[in-house]
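Try it yourself: sequence plus adenosine-5'-triphosphate, in.
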Amino acid sequence: LAQLFRPLDLLGWVYRTVRQGLIDMAAMFELIDTPAEVEDAPGAPALVVRRPGVAFENVVFGYEPGRTILQGLSFAVPAGAHVAIVGPSGAGKSTIARLLFRFYDPRSGRVTIDGQDIAQVTQASLRAAIGIVPQDSVLFNDTIGYNIGYGRAEATPEAIEAAARGAAIWPFIERLPAGLDTEVGERGLKLSGGEKQRVAIARTLVKDPPILLLDEATSALDSRTEQDILATLHRVSRDRTTISIAHRLSTIAGADEILVMDQGRLAERGSHPALLRAGGLYAEMWRRQQAEKAAPAGQSG
Ligand code: ATP
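Structure, out:
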């Protein structure tokens, strides 16, 4: 009997893996406009993550021949550390995220996780190791429980509840008439931006990845909600290697290291206080954002 079921298990696994990949892609919509064109190397093994350190080693990359975006980028995120990537629009922040997901391969140099070149392992294992909390999450026209547990078919109601608690959305779900079985999305209950963000966090908790990629919302939540979500993310990212792409510097001031990108190069790096002291690009961006915050809404251009 086991013999009979194995192919079915495999099929189920393939289905879930592909689906997980597709949904992560959909979630990455903001990060990617071209479908992935990379293929698994023949006989590629799965990524084995024991200590989830991430490294970019002298990565050169461009989307089109003749235009280089990343010009020999090197940085390391030690296992368990939180590194934030900031920089002006077009600096290459999202490009780094796309390379980490291996939507593209570098022209030269390599990206490694726990010492393994991500171009040499299966994409399914790579993507299983990284959870994204994107700026705008896609909700399915299905129940809120499904939306939290999808992509992990074996997620029990208990696991879904635990994830919802971890993402601080359980009290909200508990008050819904049908609890986890409440329909959400276009045809069901509409969730606020903050609630959707929490569903995305709960989804990530169900997946339980060793590496987190936080892609900060540009569309602002109200500041109270934002503070609450940040506190939740902070809790969730403890004990995980975390890379965040941030537009608002106030959200990443506590990162272990901040990488300041400018035109595909690492312009500055350091902790928030060190970068402020250095008085360079980061200090200038910080000063500008503080001034914008102080100005009445709508007057900052
Ligand atoms: P933002 O803060 O505005 O999101 P970013 O720092 O994330 O910017 P990237 O999206 O990484 O910037 O873009 C870096 C450069 O690569 C930009 O000059 C952009 O025009 C270019 N670029 C991005 N995606 C593509 C693509 N699919 N094809 C060609 N060029 C691209």
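One thing you can check immediately is this: Residues 1-7, 28-35 have pLDDT under 50 and may be disordered.
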